[in-house]
Amino acid sequence: MNPQQAPSPRTTIKRVPQRADYERDTIYQILDEGLVCQVGFVDHGQPFVIPTAYGRVDDTLYIHGSPASRMLKTLLQGIDVCVSVTLLDGLVLARSAFHHSMNYRSVVVLGTATLVQDAEQKLVALKAFTEHVIPGRWQEVRSPSRQELAGTLVLSLPLAEASAKVRTGGPLDDTADYQIPVWAGEIPLKLTATTPITDLRGCEAPGFQTSPRQIEVPIYATNYSRQ
Fold first, then answer.
1. pLDDT for the residue 158
2. Residue 124 belongs to a domain
3. Which of 4, 48, 56, 64 has minimal CB crowding within 10 Å?
């Protein structure tokens, strides 16, 4: 999709349209910083919204799970799906209760998901899931076995219909409310990682050559950040 291409009728922002952003780079940045998406669909007349992990490769979003997953089995029927990702950047405190708000960046993707059947593409998608959460991790860990690949469903969703919505800045009070002697402003928020905790299981396992205590915590874990 060309970065300058106009949004579809379904992805055109109607509520506060000045916050809309249809640039591919904006959409990619939000998706790449987020960790969990909300997948909305209708199954037998009942609406569902399921949180799940995801990964992006170029202009395609991937979601995965067990073949027993109700969500994935439903999406395989070719129904419309709505995927959303939201990053909360701050609380906006106004002088009136009515004008309190939040600063955020969000993306909504609409479309139809399809099953990834090609083994090589499936492996690329699974690598994208891992690298999306922990960049640099895939090259260090054991790759999925044939049995694990067979026991994992991967669906792809093109980013052909996607839009972003962003709010930044401070409160927007009514003119008269600026005379109220109450503090107003922003409380910035961000996702912060704490100290990694080493998994010590396996220390006493027969044939175990290296104690987990001897394995240095990787830089990508000690310096983990979503910014």
1. 96
2. yes
3. 4
Which string of b and e fits 132-142 if b means at least 16 CB within 10 Å? beeeeeeeeee
Structural domain harbouring 171: 17-192
Residue 164 belongs to a domain: yes
> Which residue from 79, 91, 69, 113 is spatially nearest to 187, judged by alpha carbons?
91
Residue 134 lies in a domain: yes
Rounded to whole angstroms, the Cα distance separating 115 from 71 reads 13
> Tens digit of pLDDT for each residue in 159-206?
999 999 999 999 999 999 999 999 999 999 999 999 999 888 766 556
- CA angle 67/37/3 to nearest 5° reads 115
Domains of the chain: total: 1
What is d(CA 10, CA 110) in angstroms, rounded to the nearest whole number? 8
Question: In 10 A of CB 37, how many CB atoms?
Answer: 21
pLDDT tens-digit series, residues 92-144 = 999 999 999 999 999 999 999 999 999 899 999 999 999 999 999 999 999 99
Tell me the CATH number at 85: 2.30.110.10
> How many CA atoms lie less than 13 Å away from 127 in the CB half-sphere?
12
Predicted TM-score (pTM) of the model is 0.90
Buried b (16+ CB within 10 A) or exposed e, 56-95: beeebbbbbbeeebebbebbeeeeebbbebbbebbebbbb
